Amino acid sequence: ETLKSFLKNNKLGKYNPEYLKQQEQETLEKEQQENIEKEQIDKMEIGQRCCIRLPNKPAQHGTVMYKGRLDDKSGYWVGVKYDEPYGKHNGTLNGKQYFETPPMYGSFVTPSAVEIGDFPVLDDEL
Q: Which residues form a coiled coil (predicted)?
């Protein structure tokens, strides 16, 4: 008995109707999430002030510097220049420059983490 016939006979992997339904559901959910992200970034403008809220991290203020897709990553992303060096890079990801910012001030976040508003520039020297 071949592996293929074994999988078919036992309804395993791609030969399992429940597995196929689950794959279709995951694809549908991913498409819906991307549509939501697209709607969110369409409302954003480059240069707008924002507050970034990530799980288990304090909220950070910054400026929207990029919005759209990234090479090697699925979905839509927002490039942010933080007011303080809380980022991961300088706007470059995998050798491609998406926006310019000093080292450690840039980061890419999901659109759902971005709140657009009139957020003041944070200044520790007050």
A: none
Q: Do 60 and 88 belong together in one domain?
A: yes
Which residue, among 67, 60, 50, has the nearest Cα to 114 in the 3D structure? 50
- Could you say which residues of the chain have pLDDT below 70? 122-126
Q: Which two tokens stand for residue 82?
A: 């933080």
Q: What is the pTM of this model?
A: 0.78
Q: Tokens representing 23? A: 């794959």
3-state helix, strand, coil in the chain (%, to 5): 30, 30, 40
Answer yes or no: do 111 and 91 share one domain. Answer: yes
Structural domain harbouring 61: 45-116
CA 39 vs CA 44, 45, 47, 96, 121: distances in Å: 9, 12, 18, 25, 26
